[in-house]
Amino acid sequence: MNFSFKKVIRLLLALVLLFETTYAWEWSDFIGSHLPSPVVATLSLEEVSDLRARDIKRRLARNHGYSAEELARILDKKELIHALAFEEEKIRLKYEDEVKRVLLKRGIITAILLVLVIVCWPLLQHAYEVASVNFVVYTDRKRHEAHRCWELKSYAGMVGCTIMFVLDLMQAWLTASILLSWVMRSRYFFPTPSLPIKPGQLMGGEIARSPMANYGLNVGPMAVSWGMRFVYGRIESWTGRALSRAHQTQRRAARDNESEQERAARKARKQARREERERQAAMRVPTSTLPPDWMQPNNNDSDERGEGPAPFSTVHNDHTVGSEDKQYPLPSSKEHEEFLEQLDCHVSEFDELD
């Protein structure tokens, strides 16, 4: 059996996860709270029956808030056992209700997440494909920039590319922090200043004193994002100028060391490229595809009396146009035939009137 490198890595990872148990995180950290833990261990009826009366009274006083007067009224041990068992049962039932509530909450959240994933699966798949393409384009561009800096031996360009890469990581961190801040809180979010703008306070009057004045928009992340984009644009422009200067320096050094034959060959290649561009530009000019006879004025269509060109032709059998040497067929159409028939009727009426 032939195993690829990716399959071997996946198999090793599966074996590690199979034999190694970790408790770094749980699925309940994302969809709900942990199960509630009981404050004290509850006792069953059999365990309460084995206790002495003094221990039962002490437990009722410490854990369940019984006063000395209430305990003094209970004289029989059976009543003490029933009282303690009842209090322990209440604690146990309360704990079970809390567990059921948490489990129900987890089940509802899990069901909603599954429904959203199933409904939005095409959108998620498309988003994954778009992200994959953008990642490939970004990595190819950065690889090309690094390779270009290495070819030109531009240390300033290398520094600029490194700074732009760091800024890209910071922008991705800021974007992820802004998106996740709508649904969760974390200390690992991008540190942004709080610059709230509250329109209600600017309006004055009763609106400024109403609860609506407390609502506002935090423009701190926007200001940080704008500042990072501005710095990125400046660094990119500076890096481009540095690479351009390095390219010009390298090109000038190469021209200083070339011979007369190499210079003549370079000029010949430049002239050939110019001629090729001119030829391609001339080929892009659109040419007419109509027959040449159609471009000439038609002076042959005249009536029998020679009073000028006829407004229309009454001959419909020859569905061709052009000269005698070249005949170009016209497209046949039912609507065209009906129009010509109506035209014949009108022409015959005019002939009868004459």
Automatic annotation (TrEMBL):
Keywords: Membrane, Signal, Transmembrane, Transmembrane helix. It comes from the Eukaryota. Residues 286-300 have a biased composition (Polar residues). Residues 243-337 are annotated as: Disordered. Residues 253-265, 316-337 have a biased composition (Basic and acidic residues). Residues 1-24 form the signal peptide. The chain crosses the membrane at residues 103-124, 155-184. This is Uncharacterized protein. The lineage of its organism: Eukaryota, Sar, Stramenopiles, Ochrophyta, Bacillariophyta.
